[in-house]
Amino acid sequence: MLDVRDYWNFSDPAATRTVFEELRTKLEDRQEYLDVVAQIARTYSLSGENQACLDMLKPVWDEALAAGGRAAASTMLEAARAYRGMGLVDQARKGFEDVAQSGPEDLRVDALHMLALISEGDQVEFYNQQAITLAKTSKDVWARRWIGTLYNNMGWTKYEAGDLDDTLEYFESALLARYEFGQDERVDEAKWCIGRTLCELGRIQEARELQQEILESDADLTDDEVLAAFKA
After folding, report:
1. How many CB atoms are located within 10 Å of the residue 74 CB?
2. Is the torsion defined by CA of 55, 57, 63, 66 positive or negative?
3. Rounded to 10 degrees, what is the CA torsion of 96, 100, 103, 106?
4. pLDDT tens-digit profile of 144-168?
5. C-alpha pair distances (Å), 120 with each of 34, 127, 157
6. End-to-end distance of the chain based on CA atoms, in angstroms?
7. Taking phi first (over 0 means left), then psi (-120 to 50 degrees means alpha), and beta for anything else, what does residue 48 get?
C-alpha cells in the first residue's frame, strides 16, 4: 500500500511536487490518488502559495471527504493549513479540530501541533501537551517522529513565559529525540536552542561548548560574543 510519507522532501517542496505529480498518473486506487492530491496541495502551501493549495483541493473536496480515512484527513488538514496561511484562522481551526478528533494518529498529532500554533495563552500548552501525549504513546513511527518538534515548540512556549528551567528541559528532550529518530538535519537547531537558554541562565561556559560544536569557531570568544551567537 502506498505511503505518501515516504516520498516527501520537506526542504524542497517543488521537487516533491514533481514526484507526486508523476506518481498520481500511475495510481489506480482512488484513496491513494486523493491522498496524493492532498500532498501536492501541501507543496503549494509550504511554498506560500495558499490559494494554489485550495485550488488543487477544490475539485476533489467532496469525493475526498466522502472517501474518509487518510484521504479525507489529509485533504482537510491541507486546506486548514492554507487557510491559516491566508489569515483565515476560524476556518483553519475548524479543519484542524476535525482532523485532531478523527484522523490517523500522525495527522492527529500534526493537527494538534497546528492548533497550538494558532492558539494563545493556556491553549498553546494545552494543545502541545495533547500532541506530545499522543506522539509518545502512538505505535505509528511517523507520529512518534513529531516528538522532537513538539518538545521544541513547548520549549519556546516556556521560554516566552520566562520559565527557563522548564525551557532547558524541553530543549534537551528535543535534542535527544532528534538523535533517536535520526533527524540529523535538526540537531544543530536543537543545540542552538539549548545554548541560547544556557546563556539566559548565565551558564556561559556550557553555552560556549555548544556554540563551538555548532559553529566550530574561535576558542577565545568572550562571554558577550557567545551570547551574541545565540541571539542571532
Report:
1. 26
2. negative
3. 100
4. 999 999 999 999 999 999 999 999 9
5. 33, 10, 10
6. 45
7. left
Q: In this structure, what C-alpha cell is assigned to residue 64?
A: 475526498
Distance CA 108, CA 102 (A): 7
Specify the 3-state DSSP secondary structure of 143. Answer: helix
Angle between helices 187-200 and 204-215 (to 10 degrees): 160
Q: What is the chain's mean pLDDT, rounded?
A: 93
189: left (phi over 0), alpha (psi -120 to 50) or beta: alpha
Cα–Cα distance, 85 to 218 (Å, whole number): 41
Residues 6+ apart with CB under 8 A from 230: 192, 195, 196, 198, 199, 207, 211
Tally of CA atoms within 13 A in the half-sphere of 56 that contains its CB: 27
Q: How far apart are CA 113 and CA 111, in angstroms?
A: 5
- Domains recognised in the chain with CATH numbers: 1-144 (1.25.40.10), 146-232 (1.25.40.10)
pTM of the model: 0.90
